[in-house]
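Case 344 in the screening queue. Each case pairs one protein sequence with one candidate compound; here the compound is pyridoxal-5'-phosphate. For every case the pipeline is the same: read the inputs, emit a complex structure as C-alpha cells, and attach any notable structural observations.

Predict complex for case 344.
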Amino acid sequence: MIHIDLRSDTVTHPTKEMKKAMYDAELGDDVYGDDPTTNSLQEEVSEILDKEDSVLVSSGTQGNLVSLLAWADRGDEVVVGDQSHIFMAEAGGPSVLGSLVLYPIPTDEDGYFSKKSILDSIKPRDYHKPTTKLLCIENTHNLSSGRVLDLSYINSVSKISKLNNLNLHMDGARLFNASTYLKVKPSELVKDVDSVTFCLSKGLSCPIGSVVSGDKDFILRAKKWRKMLGSGMRQVGVIAAAGRVALRTTVDRLEEDHINAKKLALGLANISELEINPNRIQTNIVRFNIPSGKGEIIANHLKSEGIYINPGKFDLRMVTHRGISAEDIDISLLAMEKVIKKIF
Ligand SMILES: *Cc1c(COP(=O)(O)O)cnc(C)c1O
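Case 344 output:
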C-alpha cells in the first residue's frame, strides 16, 4: 500500500540517530536551568544564529507568542502580514492571552510588504491610538508557497523599524530552508532582526520543539511568558537531544527537498486543470490553484490512492520533506494525472 504524505514537513519522524540521542540524553531539571542537553542546544543555536541567548519552546506558535508578549504590553500594537501565519493560523493567541492589537498589512505574492504600507501602519503618538511596538516578517513565507525574503529586503525593513522605534521579529519557522535557498549562513538572515523563532519539528525532522533567539533580556522575558503558558518543562533534554542532532544532520539535506518540490511543480504544470508557475517554487512548499473549485475532490481521490495532501477548494498544498524521495514525486504525479482524468 502506497503511503506518500505531502501534507506538511511536520509529518517527518525523528531519525534513528535522534532517537538514540534522546535515549542517551544527559538530563536535569530545566526549570532550574539544570538540563545540560537543553543548555547545549540553546548555546549551539545562539552560536549558529549569532544571538546572545536562546530558549527552547514547545512549538512555533508558542515561539511567536512568547516573542510578541516579550516585546509588547497589553494594548500595544503588533504589525503583521495579512497573509502571515501569526495572523492567520495561531488562533488569535496574542490578542486572547496578551491583549495585543494585531494590525494586518497587505502582503505581496512573495511575502513582502511595501515600504508605504509599513510606514502607514505605524501610529503617531496620540491617545486615540494603540502604541505600535513590533513588526513581524515571515521567512520562508508559508502562504506564498514558501517564498524567501532576501537579505536586502530584511535590511531595509530593519532600518524602517529602527527609525520608528519598533522591534523586528522574524517568524522563521523554516529559516533553514530560506538560508539553504539563498546559500547564506542563517546568522546572516537574522542579523537585522531583534528576535527570531524557528521550528525543529518541520523539515529538520524533530518530533517536538522550536527555538527562540534574541538578546539576553528579551530571552528572560520570553522565559517568563513560557512559564506562564505552562511550558516550563523539566527533563526536556529528551527533546533538545533530537534538536542537537537535527542541527548537525538534517540542515544540509534540505536542498534535496527543494529539488523535489521543483520537480513536483514542473510536473503539475503539465496538467492543464491545475494552475501553477513552477518558476515561483524556491523551497519545499508547492501551492497551486484549481480554478474549477474541485480541490477537495482531487485531494479525496488522491487519498484513496495513498497520497495525502492539504485540501482546499480552490488551492492545494504539497510539501516535500525527508520522508519524500524523487521516486515518490513520480508516483504522486502519475496518481494526480490519473485522478484528474477521472474527475474532469
Ligand atoms: C508551522 C508554522 C508555524 C507554527 O509552528 P507550530 O510548531 O506548528 O506551532 C509558524 N509560522 C509558520 C510560517 C509556520 O509555517
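Case 344 observations:
- The chain has a mean pLDDT of 97.
- Residues 200 and 243 are 6 Å apart (CA to CA).
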